[in-house]
């Protein structure tokens, strides 16, 4: 495959920061997942997936339990998923996924975050065609060769297996997410550093230092929005 998910460093930084903002976003996502079916991960696949992701960010059990109890309590907060697409400096492309109970507010906030930081929001489909949906699963304690052998033994077809940021990263089709995790657990993996469904850029752009600074300010502004859950982009990370 040859391409890398360029959010690994950002993801690890968010995990290390353990910010209340990250926890609040997960609280909302867990609530929505629990409301989408039974508030029990054993029978609710969507909720089970969100909880697996929450573990990789060390989301406290109290926040998880509070969100699930809120869903059980019949609270009627109606959130909808929205995807926004836009452009940053020098050909950079951005996808913003949100959960919102006020679409007009969120669209306005996202548009402002783009506009105030040298970017502009595009129409639906403006950049998504330049990204591929992918499952990204990262763990430690195994070599690339061992990981490939393990996945082949389980007859799991993956896009790529690479060593990145001192861990093994498996890239697979989104539908293979649970199969890859199950195979890893069977092989003795007890903790996942990354467990995401992401959008992987088909190609990357490299920005000048000034453009890079402006781009990072734009991404920070987008991620700071309460309704924004994920931000994906095609800017190459600095090594």
Automatic annotation (TrEMBL):
Keywords: Cytoplasm, DNA-binding, Transcription, Transcription regulation
GO biological process: regulation of DNA-templated transcription
Taxonomic superkingdom: Bacteria
Primary localisation category: cytoplasm
Domain TACO1/YebC-like second and third: 79-235
Places the protein is found: Cytoplasm
Similarity remark: Belongs to the TACO1 family.
UniProt name for this protein: Probable transcriptional regulatory protein SAMN05421737_105257
Species: Shouchella lonarensis
């Amino acid at each position: 495959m040859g391409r890398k998910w360029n959010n690994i460093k950002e993801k690890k930084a968010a995990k290390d920061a353990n910010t209340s903002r990250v926890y609040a976003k997960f609280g909302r996502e867990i609530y929505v997942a629990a409301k989408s079916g039974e508030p029990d991960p054993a029978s609710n696949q969507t909720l089970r997936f969100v909880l697996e992701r929450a573990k990789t960010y060390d989301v406290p059990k109290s926040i998880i339990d509070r969100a699930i109890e809120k869903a059980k309590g019949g609270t009627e907060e109606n959130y909808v998923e929205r995807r926004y697409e836009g452009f940053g400096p020098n050909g950079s492309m951005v996808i913003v996924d949100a959960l919102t109970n006020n679409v007009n507010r969120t669209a306005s906030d996202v548009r402002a975050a783009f506009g105030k930081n040298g970017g502009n929001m595009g129409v639906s489909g403006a950049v998504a065609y330049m990204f591929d949906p992918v499952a990204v699963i990262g763990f430690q304690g195994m070599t690339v060769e061992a990981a490939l052998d393990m996945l082949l033994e389980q007859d799991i077809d993956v896009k790529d297996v690479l060593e990145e940021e001192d861990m093994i990263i498996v890239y697979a089709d989104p539908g293979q997410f649970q199969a890859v995790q199950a195979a890893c657990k069977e092989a003795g993996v007890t903790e996942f550093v990354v467990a995401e469904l992401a959008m992987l850029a088909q190609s990357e752009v490299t920005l000048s230092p000034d453009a890079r600074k402006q781009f990072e300010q734009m991404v920070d502004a987008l991620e700071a929005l309460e309704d924004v859950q994920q931000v994906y982009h095609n800017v190459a990370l600095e090594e």
